[in-house]
Amino acid sequence: MSSANSVIILDFETTGLSPNMGDRAIEIGAVKLINGQVVDTFQQLMNPGFRVSSFIEGYTGITNNMLTHAPSCAEVIAEFCDFIADDNLVAHNASFDKRFLDAELERVNRTYRGEFACSLLVSRRLNQQAPSHKLGDLVRFKNIANDGVFHRALADSQMTAKLWLLMIEEMEQQGIHQPSFELMQKISKTSKHDVAKLLERYR
């Protein structure tokens, strides 16, 4: 069993929603946690090789001019693959980030050994009273300290890390000692109705 509080939390900014439609990553940010402490971070813009839309420029604050001077996607993703090594991975709406990580790594013939967990799905089960599970809304709902920056990769991964550690802390307060990464994955796949029964088994 691996610990839920020793993971890499990552976030991509991208040119669109789907690598299958030709979209590429334009920024990656990540936070490395060991025993609940941030021990390292990674942030890098990445040049996709084409101009991004004015919508994406406005949404992320990442301009075409910034990307022109950034290293290539291939260069950055290879460096990031070294950064994540064999660690387990967490992202908010992980299926999105996993698609882009897989697509970019496939282009450079690299892979990773860790597994993914989704903080959004875990939050849906553990914070059922939250009005929304968007990252910014959860940060406000949980009164998590933030600098108001969203849709930049490192800021979002830092906020996700705070949310992730808070959910672990709340589970520990309910008598679940040192939740494992595998338990967090299990929570995300359990129906809202059955989650209380699942947690009872781990107390």
TrEMBL record:
GO terms for cellular component: cytosol. It comes from Vibrio galatheae. GO terms for biological process: DNA replication proofreading. This is DNA-directed DNA polymerase. Keywords: Exonuclease, Hydrolase, Nuclease. The keyword Nucleotide-binding does not apply. DNA polymerase III contains a core (composed of alpha, epsilon and theta chains) that associates with a tau subunit. This core dimerizes to form the POLIII' complex. PolIII' associates with the gamma complex (composed of gamma, delta, delta', psi and chi chains) and with the beta chain to form the complete DNA polymerase III complex. Transmembrane segments: none annotated. GO terms for molecular function: 3'-5' exonuclease activity; DNA binding; DNA-directed DNA polymerase activity. Residues 6-173 form the Exonuclease domain. It comes from the Bacteria. DNA polymerase III is a complex, multichain enzyme responsible for most of the replicative synthesis in bacteria. The epsilon subunit contain the editing function and is a proofreading 3'-5' exonuclease. Its EC number is 2.7.7.7.
